[in-house]
Write a structure and sequence with these properties.
Layout: E1 5-11, E2 16-19, E3 27-28, E4 41-44, E5 52-56, E6 59-63, E7 71-72, E8 81-87, E9 95-100, E10 104-107, E11 124-125, E12 129-130, E13 132-138, E14 146-151, E15 154-158, E16 166-168, E17 177-183, E18 191-196, E19 200-203, E20 211-212, E21 223-230, E22 233-242, E23 250-255, E24 263-264, E25 275-279, E26 288-292, E27 297-300, E28 308-309, E29 317-324
Antiparallel strand pairs: 1-2, 1-29, 2-3, 4-5, 5-6, 6-7, 8-9, 9-10, 11-12, 13-14, 14-15, 15-16, 17-18, 18-19, 19-20, 21-22, 22-23, 23-24, 25-26, 26-27, 27-28
């Protein structure tokens, strides 16, 4: 079995759960917050695995003890639906939070004070009532650059660690952004990947222009959701694929060449809905967890090539993370 670690699952209506035995058993870990809250964002501090941040419909919460207890981070985020969180890897005291309706908030001092950058994002959409910031991604090759993806509202880029933002993304197959990943170029142009409701998109000019990859010709469906990369092996990219939101079937897709080609991973069967989330950690690039939006959990111990289904199922999973003890 893999090294001792903790697995965290953020759910809709059941709060957050923790496993210390590789996903065999779970206990609720919501002390200090509404036990039935909707957890859509969950991140582990890059330098201290006991520290976690969580976003719910009640605002931002922080744990200093590995989710044994939580305390609200009092801020302008109180009472807002948080859909995405980012702690900058090199300077984790800089925290970005994205909400629904779409707004961005930034703290430069570990959450003690906050500002709201002046960025024009559409906030209303007839299809989903309100847009939401679904993904926040730091550029591993440029510590100043951050990306934000909005469902349904396109892509936004910051060149100053989240203080100012501009819309970009000419050529995207859709403005319905779900996930984002950046593969360093190692002497060649870096590759940016954005998943949407109808394709996976690629940019090789730092996000100025995009081209759809026609992922439906390589995978069972064109609907794409979660994107993740193995710690220390960024060219190995994982993609959540399925037949819709939430869908009734899903697979994990895997690329070993920075998203140029894709194959469905080996799974015990199709998931019960689209694969929504992945959990990776640089402490062990082989250990990966994945979840379907309709509550199934999967584990891989070979970097996402093959998967086993875990016995526990939840009603709806929206956030996933693991870290070493």
């Amino acid at each position: 079995m893999t090294q001792t670690h903790r697995l965290y699952v953020g759910t809709i209506g059941q709060g957050v759960w923790r496993s210390t035995d590789g996903g065999v058993s779970f206990a609720r870990a919501a002390d200090g917050m509404f036990v039935e809250c909707h957890v859509r964002a969950l991140v582990v501090h890059p330098h201290d695995s006991r520290v976690l941040y969580l976003g719910s419909e009640q605002g931002l919460f922080c744990s200093q003890d590995g989710a044994s207890s939580w305390a609200r981070v009092e801020s302008a985020l109180d009472g807002l639906q948080i859909w995405s969180l980012l702690l900058l890897p090199q300077t984790p005291e800089v925290i970005l939070a994205g909400t629904c309706p779409s707004r961005l908030f930034r703290s430069a001092d570990g959450g003690r004070t906050w500002s709201e950058p002046a960025v024009r994002m559409p906030r209303d959409c007839p299809r989903i009532i309100h847009t939401r910031v679904t993904t926040l991604c730091a550029d591993p090759t440029d510590s100043e650059t951050i990306w934000a993806g909005v469902e349904i509202g396109g892509l936004y880029r910051s060149r100053d660690r989240g203080q100012t933002w501009l819309a970009t993304g000419r050529g995207l197959s859709s403005l319905d952004i779900h996930g984002f990943a950046i593969v360093p170029g190692n002497g060649r142009p870096k590759r940016l990947l954005a998943s949407t409701n109808n394709d996976l998109n690629l940019s090789t000019d730092d996000g100025e222009t995009w081209q759809p990859l026609r992922i439906g010709q390589m995978l069972p469906w064109s609907y794409c959701r979660g994107l993740s990369q193995l710690g220390g092996r960024p060219a190995v990219v994982l993609l959540g694929n399925g037949d819709g939101p939430p869908g009734s079937a899903g697979v994990v897709a895997r690329s070993v060449d920075a998203g140029a080609t894709w194959q469905a991973a080996r799974m015990p069967g199709r998931a019960n809905s689209t694969i929504w989330n992945f959990a990776v950690n640089a402490a062990n690039s082989d250990l990966v967890y994945a979840s379907s939006v309709s509550g199934e959990l999967y584990r891989s111990t070979d970097g996402g090539a093959a998967w086993e289904k875990l016995p526990r199922e939840f009603g709806e999973i929206r956030a996933l993370a693991w870290c070493p003890e």
